[in-house]
Amino acid sequence: xxxxxxxxxxxxxxxxDLLVEFDxxxxxxxxxxxxxxxxxxxxxxxxxxxxxxxxxxxxxxTFTIMHEYNCQDGQITHIDLYRLTSQDAExxxxxxxxxxxxxxxxxxxxxxxxxxxxxxxxxIELEHIDDxxxxxxxxxx
Length: 141
Prior knowledge:
Layout: E1 2-7, H1 11-22, E2 29-33, H2 40-50, E3 66-71, E4 74-80, H3 89-101, E5 104-108, H4 114-117, E6 122-128, E7 133-140
Parallel strand pairs: 2-5, 2-6, 4-5
Antiparallel strand pairs: 1-7, 3-4, 6-7
Helix pairs in contact: 1-2
């Protein structure tokens, strides 16, 4: 596990460093955990921008559960499981299929569905320090 404190204004630099680390991952399935407002979607916005998704407005899929982006570096999937109440086999199968088709999958709140959580290669945990600073902890599976 790696952990450090960063300034939210330097999130683009952090995202660049993370992508270098993620390059060696087999499936590039990244989970993001932390309280509401910790910066999960903000970090995903910085990551997707660096992956060639600058033409898209990357937003949280809290209500739609999933957004797909066809970017310069390939298909990117952003999933937010926070509001998911159904864990039926069809929903889980659809999510897994989408994850398997993507070059990168960023999944917020993966712990909500254990079957999805098992797929995570790296879990990023974000927490508030203050208005400008966050702590990032990175756990590799």
